[in-house]
Amino acid sequence: MDFKLENKRVLVMGSSTGLGFAIAKAFAAEGAIVGVTSREMHRAEQAAEQIPGSMAFMCDLLQAQAGKQLVQTVSKPLALGGIDILVTNAGGPPKGLFSELKGEDWDAGYHGLWRSAIDAIHAVLPQMRERKWGRIIMCTSTSSKEPIPKLTISNAYRAGLIGVMKTVSQEVAADQITVNAIMPGYTKTKRLEEFKIPEKDLIANIPARRLGRPEEFAALATFLGSEQAAYINGQTIACDGGLIRGL
């Protein structure tokens, strides 16, 4: 199936490793021009070297207005020249029980997860509205639906992003812009390895009886960015092997 992504300009935030990298690579494979980002330029450049048709950009999502500034930089004529598809993505915030977390932990989560996405979306919408076409894909987590123990900050902010997605999707639908959220379950990445939970214990709770692959999550993102997905809007879609039990 031709997703009609040839020469579409895609910005994938937090894309030097993990799920973001897989998404950037998948869009590039469909002929898109992709902006790859990291808080360290050399990491962004290393990632871009592995993705044909991509450009590297540095952006520390923990800094104030990072999302807005990134969109402005990527949209310049000598960069991508605009953004047709925005993928908001960020690494996990500090983990811990509510009683263990400090104010600075919440501040880091706010800027890295919440405000970076809000600012980027706010900055990109005018150009999408002018073109009467756009795709915004927000990477969240299954914790948006079912809280995960010790991921208190992620549980809180990622669930809030679902509310933002639902609200914005209604406001921009008439401009032929879709806004959707995608939720990875337990996926085989370095981030998951940091939790140091035995893989067999994780798999025991997944109906598919295996971990997800980054490429599977990336395939979902790529489809939502396609022309064929033009009527899918305001949805929260999990790629989790059946992990979420609720409706």
UniProtKB/TrEMBL annotation:
Enzyme category, top tier: oxidoreductase
Any single Pfam family the record assigns to this protein: adh_short_C2
Keywords, alphabetical: Oxidoreductase
Known EC number: 1.1.1.100
PANTHER family: 3-OXOACYL-(ACYL-CARRIER-PROTEIN) REDUCTASE, NADPH-DEPENDENT REDUCTASE BACG
Similarity comment: family membership: Belongs to the short-chain dehydrogenases/reductases (SDR) family.
Protein name according to UniProt: 3-oxoacyl-[acyl-carrier-protein] reductase
Species of provenance: Simkania negevensis (strain ATCC VR-1471 / DSM 27360 / Z)
